[in-house]
Amino acid sequence: MNCKRSVCVLICVFCFCCVLGNVKRTFRIQELTVTEKKLNDCKNQKKLCVTSSSDCHYMALDGAPRVPRTPENFLNTSCHYRIHEQSFTCRWIQTKDVRSETISSFIFSRVQDFIYCPAILNMHSTFNLTIKSKSVISQKEQFSDIYPLNITDITQAPRPLITSVNATDSSISVTWTSATTPITKCKIRYKRLNTESWTETADFVSSVESQFVIEGLQSFSVFDLSVSCFHGFGRWSDWSEETRVKTTESLPSAALSLSYYVDSDENSGIRRLVLLWKALDVTDARGLIRGYEVSYKPITQPSLKKTRHTSHLKAVVLVRSEEYEVSVCAYNSAGRSPDRRLTVDASRTHDVPAVRSLWVYSDGSSLWIRWEYEFTAVNISEFAIEWSSATDGEHRRWERVDGSTFTVRLPGIEAQQTYNISVFPICGSLAGPPNNISADLQHGALLDPVGFGLLNVSSSSVALRWSWKEAKPGVCVLQYRLVLTGPDEIQTLAVFPDKQQHSFLHLHPNTKYSVHIHGETRDGNFTKASLDITTLLLDYEEMMRFAVPAVLLLLIFGIFSVLSRTVCREYLFPIIANPRYSLIGRWLLNPHLQGSDKICVLKLDGLFLMDQQMEKSVFVVSDHEDEVPLKTSEAAEGTALWKPCSDDEESALTPSSLPEYVDLPFLPDSSGYVQTGQIPGERNSD
């Protein structure tokens, strides 16, 4: 049981020590000032002078305190004596381990006796100093080390008092006094407003009342200044109270940085020249810029020069398709700046594209604007951001950032206000058209995607479209993101108001996909719109890619077959009649047949039965074997089919060339050959 108690006690002590070790030590500056009237004698100890009579019994005869010293509670102790006030002051840093007020007192001591304590504060006095600090609550007393002091060494000049300051555009004249004590030299320190470092002048000879001129200052600038002086011995005085003064205006020293672009309306044919310039730096403005003067004139017609004044950093003027000379300058109460001149060809536009993916979101106290820019042959030097309240379009604010910056915080944004924001790309003297967006502090960008739907689908791709409209979403959207989810893949893309359609490529055929538009917020994501899509098995283009060549190939093959058959039959392999396929041909080719020189007639009976109105063919057979003349005549029914002809007629019927062969049907078996002109079985027609 005793062991457990011991362990508990050790744990408690350890924890208490840890707590004490974790207590942060704090510090505070202590200062105590005494005059000769506050110094008291110690009756029995002539070597002591104290500010509190109760301190006499704490000191031994040798001046040492009877209690231990704690010098760690009296850090950076510094003392000084002021002649004109006859006061003695010490400052030190005291630790605050215990949060309680303390009362401090001085104990003066030296080896020789003090004759009269109020008289020890003089220019030739030397003594030792001990500082005592006593806690008001705990009554705990602490003593510092013994500090040996010489009044001559710690004598401090009186603090000067600045009586007047006069400023010009580049100098400040300062006048001050240093009480009635003699002063040998002084110095002045000054700094521009909102800067940390001071600039000190060299020491210069001075007197009780002095004046000094600080030159080479920036015009129209605010300076803080103070003065410190020196007796020639001891210490420099404390710096006087700071005095604030502003130099006057002067002529602006630099010309404006001017850029332009030409905006043309194809429908109306109107051309607008948009001029942008950068506000002068304070060092160049040398005063409060009160406005800008814009002048422009056609080079071919200088008499048409026009001039206008504006307080904005942008001007829009109507021009024609010709060259103009443009000049812009700034002016303040002192005068005008040098002119910035440009020669502008308003007949053509320049290839400086606008920024992309512009978006605005809120962090609760300010608006953040971001954008993207496609790196092209045009080297963008900076971006100009213009914003103004929708209800106060005349009060416009501008911000310029480097060409490598794509995110800017817009200051001075008020709640319950809608702002119109524009971003211009700048390339030297050329500018690009702005990209515009509206936003407020509660919602950020006031644009919402709507009309999300399918534009096109194929076996390997999906095309989607949507549009944007001005709205006030329920939450502040950091950005919108388009997400496609499939069986084994996810594709995502950030979408902004300048993008209204997108195609997902390299997808799988006949596969179901889900597409969503997600809104990203600081608290999470939400789904704005969704769509389920199934890709096609085959594309119409793919089917046409295979079907059209096949049809063309078949068509070409058919045409080629018909043409080749016709060409072969007409020119290469013509059809020649074979006499062996007919009875007449075989009869004519029979060499054993004999006959007279009389004309023989072959009467075809029942040869053409298909149409009784068809013309009948009559063949004339010559006794020459190599000639087979053919004659067709129109014979009426019931008349003789053939009659003998004379030699002249026979010679006239003989063709001069081989006749054309004609395919004829085979003669029926009942047909006969008649040499006498009569058909067997019938009577002579004579």
From TrEMBL:
Keyword Signal among record annotations: yes
Q: Which Pfam families has this protein been placed in?
A: fn3
PROSITE patterns assigned: FN3
Q: Does the keyword Membrane apply?
A: yes
Fibronectin type-III domain segment(s): 157-250, 352-446, 448-540
Provide the transmembrane region boundaries. Answer: 543-563
Q: Which organism is it from?
A: Carassius auratus (Goldfish)
Signal peptide residue numbers = 1-21
What domain of life does the UniProt record list for this protein's source?
Answer: Eukaryota
What keywords are assigned to this protein?
Answer: Membrane, Repeat, Signal, Transmembrane, Transmembrane helix
Q: Which InterPro entries does the UniProt record give? A: ECM_Regulatory_Proteins, FN3_dom, FN3_sf, Ig-like_fold
Q: What is this protein called?
A: Interleukin-6 receptor subunit beta-like
